[in-house]
Design goal:
- This protein has 105 residues and is mainly alpha-helical.
- The longest helix has 18 residues.
Length: 105
């Protein structure tokens, strides 16, 4: 099934936003909080995998459990809604990221 023009544009913006986040310098000026990192993680997983289907990690896996909880909280959000929310989130922190301005134009 082919994506229509709007979905294709959304996919391109989402992929550009993902690349921007993945290419942030580890010691750069923008250091996202843990809650922001979890938000990006959960939206990425929802956009690419849909709602969480795995069981909740053990209480001894603190990081895995936090990631799972963030993803699970998105419920039945559609892939398109998750992609748009990811793009919206990067735009909200965009004033700290000069890279955002280059792909948004």
């Amino acid at each position: 099934m082919a994506l229509d023009g709007g979905q294709s544009l959304l996919r391109k913006r989402f992929e550009a936003a993902v690349k921007t986040i993945q290419n942030l310098p580890k010691n750069g000026s923008y250091q996202p909080s843990h809650s922001v990192q979890l938000k990006f993680y959960s939206l990425y997983k929802q956009a690419n995998n849909g709602p969480v289907k795995s069981s909740r990690p053990s209480m001894f896996d603190v990081v895995g459990r936090a990631k799972w909880d963030a993803w699970k909280a998105l419920g039945d959000m559609s892939a398109e809604e998750a992609m748009q929310a990811y793009v919206d989130e990067i735009m909200s922190v965009g004033s700290s990221l000069s890279a955002v301005r280059t792909w948004w134009k």
